[in-house]
Automatic annotation (TrEMBL):
One of its GO terms (biological process) is spindle assembly. This is HAUS augmin like complex subunit 2. GO terms for cellular component: centrosome; HAUS complex; mitotic spindle microtubule. It comes from the Eukaryota. PANTHER family: HAUS AUGMIN-LIKE COMPLEX SUBUNIT 2 (PTHR16039:SF1). Pfam families: HAUS2.
């Protein structure tokens, strides 16, 4: 026979049941609270869930490690990957063969380089003659402008410095232009003054001449009067 549940107020009355019934009737405890207290905590279920979370985190960490390894392999593929190494080896081998052929033909190549190449004709088909004419024009134009292009390329690292120098030169030029304008205004004023002086010179000379002429004309008249006075005495 199953034992009565002391926490269930509907079972056989007991001291605990009567006390709980009194609490339920008074409203201090509800039936839902009593039902919740009947359920036992699922410890093993929580433990298994925690174990699953731990396993998932370990799997994520492992995948992250694999991703990092793949990224590292991608970054260093041109160094350690066999296919890239094979391509590099093939390129080096072809360069080595070319250098060996050059060394074998070193004497003939030296003779060809020492031999002048003027007055020699290149066999070109007639279809390509117009293209060759255009190509030669482009080559001549390029050679003419080559020095300018090289000078421009050399000046690229000093571009900021050249711009600063150009700004200073422009500022100095503005100052010189301002001074030149002031000097031009002063020259114009001086010319006007010279014109005024030149226009006044004849008048001044005429006045001086008249003044001197009056003095010389009055002197003989005075001397005659003086002589007559002396004779009368």
């Amino acid at each position: 026979m199953a034992a009565a549940n002391p926490w269930d107020p509907a079972s056989e009355p007991s001291a605990a049941g009567l006390l709980l019934g009194h609490f339920v009737a008074s409203g201090m405890v509800t039936q839902e609270m009593l039902n919740i207290s009947k359920k036992s905590a699922s410890y093993f279920a929580n433990f298994s869930r925690l174990q699953q979370i731990t396993n998932i985190q370990a799997g994520i960490y492992q995948k992250n490690l694999e991703i990092e390894l793949l990224k590292l392999e991608k970054d260093t593929a041109d160094v350690v990957h066999p296919s890239f190494l094979a391509q590099k080896c093939h390129t080096l081998q072809s360069m080595n063969n070319h250098l060996e052929a050059v060394l074998k033909e070193k004497r003939s190549l030296r003779q060809r380089l020492l031999k002048p190449t003027c007055q020699e004709n290149l066999p070109i088909e007639a279809v390509y003659h117009s293209y060759m004419v255009h190509l030669l024009e482009l080559a001549v134009t390029f050679i003419e402008r080559l020095e300018n292009h090289l000078e421009t390329i050399k000046n690229i690292p000093h571009l900021d410095e050249n711009l600063k120098k150009m700004s200073l030169a422009l500022a100095k030029m503005d100052m010189l232009v301002t001074k030149t304008e002031e000097l031009a205004e002063n020259i114009l004023k001086w010319r006007e003054q010279q014109k005024e002086v030149s226009s006044c010179i004849p008048t001044i000379l005429a006045e001086d001449y008249l003044h001197k002429h009056d003095v010389t004309m009055s002197l003989p008249f005075t001397s005659k009067v003086h002589v007559q006075t002396v004779n009368a005495k």
